[in-house]
């Protein structure tokens, strides 16, 4: 019994979240990852920022969702694909400096990004952060043209002891079964472009993360998303302003 209590206390210590308003009023969650904290700043849709060990990591920055000229300069920018709700050169220009690293897929790099190109299943280590590019694509007939297989990226980041999966625009693809040790997963839910709620459930079962952040979820029923995941898996669902 004592061992069980100690294990439970350790889990909650590792995954403690402080929810607050910060950086110009954006929502923020804070997670402990060993000796370093991981902070998530939620801007909207697929745009967010992660702060870790003094570094600022931006994912798919788009001007519509944040005032990027008022935010810290980027140490790292990740671009999943070249659609305008994921890649915005104006937002990128507002946060880059001479030391900013940009990682993208090949087609995004063609838009004058000066990025380090990763294809599916390739990886790179930048400033002690391991970045794995993983597949992201549509599988349903009639949707495949939105995100064809082999073109776009999702990313897995290893920050200290925390592994974070940022899925990009994808459905519940078989490759998700290969993802191991995922603590936090950002999963898109907006048919017809990404997943239905039922597909989200299947994705969570394949990945088995401790925490799920639905994002890019448009008009999907938020209560239904949370209930279907928490009633059928052990994952916790956290809804933030990521429509």
What features would you describe in this structure?
It is a single chain. The chain is an alpha/beta fold and 243 residues long. It has one domain: 4-Layer Sandwich (Metallo-beta-lactamase, Chain A), CATH 3.60.15.10. Helix content is 18%, strand content 33%. The chain contains 5 helices and 15 strands. Helix 5 links the parallel strand 14 and strand 15. The longest helix has 13 residues. The protein is globular, with a radius of gyration of 17 Å.
Give a quick set of tags describing it:
243 residues, Metallo-beta-lactamase, Chain A, 15 strands, alpha/beta, globular, 33% strand, 5 helices, disordered N terminus
Shape: globular
Q: From the 3D coordinates, which CATH architecture would you assign?
A: 4-Layer Sandwich
User: How many DSSP helices?
Assistant: 5
Number of domains: 1
Strand content: 25-35%
CATH superfamily: Ribonuclease Z/Hydroxyacylglutathione hydrolase-like
Predict the CATH topology: Metallo-beta-lactamase, Chain A
Helix content: 10-25%
Count of individual beta strands: 15
Calculate the terminal CA-CA distance, rounded to whole Å: 42 Å
Pattern of helices and strands? HEEEEEEHEHEEEEEEHEHE
Largest sheet: 8 strands, mixed
Strand order of the largest sheet: 1-2-3-4-5-6-7-8
Instruction: Please tell me the overall pLDDT.
Output: 91
Low-confidence stretches: 1-22
CATH class label: Alpha Beta
Radius of gyration: 17 Å
Helix vs. strand class? alpha/beta
